[in-house]
Amino acid sequence: MSLPTGSQPTLRQLELFIAAAEHRSFAAAAAEVFVTPNAVSAAVTELETLFNTQLFIRRRAKGLTLTTAGQDLVVRARDLLDRANELTLHIGNVSDVPRGPVKVGCYSTLAATVVPELWAQVTRLLPEIQLDIEEGPVEVLSQRLLDGHLDLLISYRVGLPMGLVVEVLFESSPQVVLPEDHPMSHQASVALEALKDEPLILLDLPPAGDNTLRLLQERGLRPHVLHRSTSYETVRSMVARGFGYSLFFQQTMSNISYEGLRLVHRDILPPLNAEPVVLSRHVDTEPTHRALAVEDVIRNMISSSKSGPASV
């Protein structure tokens, strides 16, 4: 059913509706877009009148719940707003210089070695791009990529869901991390079996923790996990203090913990399987010109390094 002439939704109404859908609250949406809750509520009511359908179920204690029609409008409104934004960015862009926002997700343990160089490269090569980088666990970032909140994702391949186009950037082999005064620290390589009676300090930022335990179990080892942490630096500090060993897929340029204690990285003998670091995007989303330009920067950045940005 077509809408009456002159009764078309505005982009602003759709923006406020999307904010309400994301936050499930008029008040939270209003804070996000810097308007009053009444303005958000009015925009939604106007859309419901315009489409002659209910978009939200309103419950005072539980907030807003999208109806089936509301869910459909979220998808269509996001697409329309994206297209409108693309139109704004490209009008007058006669030189075809990539410009506008690009949102990149980066798995937290890779971020310290990937993000600074990526930011430097994009700033130098693509000055009209507004780079926005979000760090976090793979399960959260991959869902944000599928939901259309990210353009690209840099992560390990393990733990990624279906629905993504995945390109391998480089492969990273795990190493044992030991305190400097560990009896095996002078060895060039360490057999995991030699550590079977020692406690493990586990980096447990999904999917790293499960992946580490799986690799050890494939070797027939059932490690005693003394401590789990989602912080890369906390694990390094615990190891440097001598509380146990850990496994890392990347190595920093410094072997000094936050407390100034030394630790060492040693190859594993025989080596564990390498884990690919990949660049992902949504399989059903046509990448923007500017996102493709950032993809090229990422590829060139990795290929210019002999063994990946983290010296792994």
Describe the structure in brief:
With 312 residues, this protein is of the alpha/beta class. The chain contains nine helices and 13 strands. Strand 9, helix 7 and strand 10 form a beta-alpha-beta unit.
What does this structure look like?
Helices cover 39% and strands 23% of the residues. The chain is an alpha/beta fold. The strands form four sheets. The chain has a five-stranded mixed beta sheet with strand order 4-3-5-13-6, with helices on both faces. It has a four-stranded mixed beta sheet with strand order 8-12-7-11. Strands 1-2 form a two-stranded antiparallel sheet. A hairpin with a 3-residue loop joins strand 1 and strand 2. The radius of gyration is 24 Å and the shape is elongated. The termini are far apart. The model is unreliable at 306-312 (pLDDT under 50).
